[in-house]
Design a protein that fits this description.
The protein is mostly helical and 99 residues long. Helix content is 62%, strand content 0%.
Length: 99
């Protein structure tokens, strides 16, 4: 996410996700991975999706032991794969290339 959105090492966690997918308001520009072709409500929902996924899946396992069944692990990997595919698409759009 840092690389895709050109963030620094000091940017991290759910704050990074919210900044990457920030909706343009007033003088604040949209985040570098915000899909501005979507309505504002969906742009905001995308930020919630990424921040929520990071907060739930990454933070929990980084701070304590979380027992996980194999089928649950597969589901999380599939979900993470979908999120990464979205980031790749948005990164390409942000760079001005055709996806």
């Amino acid at each position: 996410m840092r690389t895709a959105g050109n963030f620094t090492e000091s940017d991290h966690g759910t704050d990074l996700m919210r900044a990457a997918f920030r909706v343009a308001k007033n003088a604040a520009p949209a985040g570098p991975l915000t899909d501005i072709s979507l309505p504002a409500g969906e742009q905001e929902a995308m930020g919630h999706l990424f921040a929520g996924a990071f907060g739930l899946y990454r933070n929990s396992t980084a701070h304590r032991y979380v027992p996980t069944k194999p089928e649950e692990a597969v589901e999380v990997i599939m979900f993470a794969s979908q999120l990464l595919r979205i980031v790749d698409r948005l990164k390409t759009q942000a760079a001005g290339a055709t996806p």
